[in-house]
Write a structure and sequence with these properties.
- Strand 5 and strand 6 form a beta hairpin.
- This protein starts with a helix and ends in a 16-residue tail after the last strand.
- It is globular and about 50 Å long.
- With 126 residues, the chain is α+β, with helices and mostly antiparallel strands.
- The chain has three helices and six strands; from the N terminus they run H-H-E-E-H-E-E-E-E.
Length: 126
């Protein structure tokens, strides 16, 4: 797959994620894919286990992609994952092998109040 094909697959993946289309969402993964959540210390092996773990997740969730960058076998998506109307700023690092995701690592960051000490140099984003 070339960069254009991978980008199209990522666009389909995130659209399916937002639509809660669990079948289409997981087509991007290899059968032996590994998903890691370093902040919780969890590793999930296998596409079917990744899909099952997401299907079992009870929260209502929405995905808003901010940007996707990458080339070759390494792609990064920055997005806002909103669980039950609470946003979490998220980065997904996907490593591709033979056109499918072999490894994904996701990092989550919750919103926090702006620091008063830097107020004179910033502009609000929300």
């Amino acid at each position: 797959m070339d960069n254009h094909d991978i980008r199209a697959a990522l666009d389909r993946h995130w659209a399916a994620s937002d639509a809660n289309d669990f079948e289409a969402e997981h087509q991007i993964y290899r059968e032996d894919a590994v998903l890691e959540y370093p902040q919780s210390g969890e590793r999930i092996r296998g596409r079917s286990n990744i899909q099952a773990s997401r299907f079992a997740q009870p929260n209502r969730k929405r995905f808003t992609v901010r940007r996707i960058i990458g080339a070759g076998d390494l792609w990064v998506t920055e997005y806002v994952l909103t669980y039950d109307e609470r946003p979490s700023y998220t980065v997904s690092i996907m490593e591709f092998k033979d056109g499918k995701v072999a490894r994904e690592t996701q990092y989550f960051g919750d919103a926090f109040d702006p620091g008063a000490s830097r107020a004179q140099w910033v502009e609000p984003m929300r």
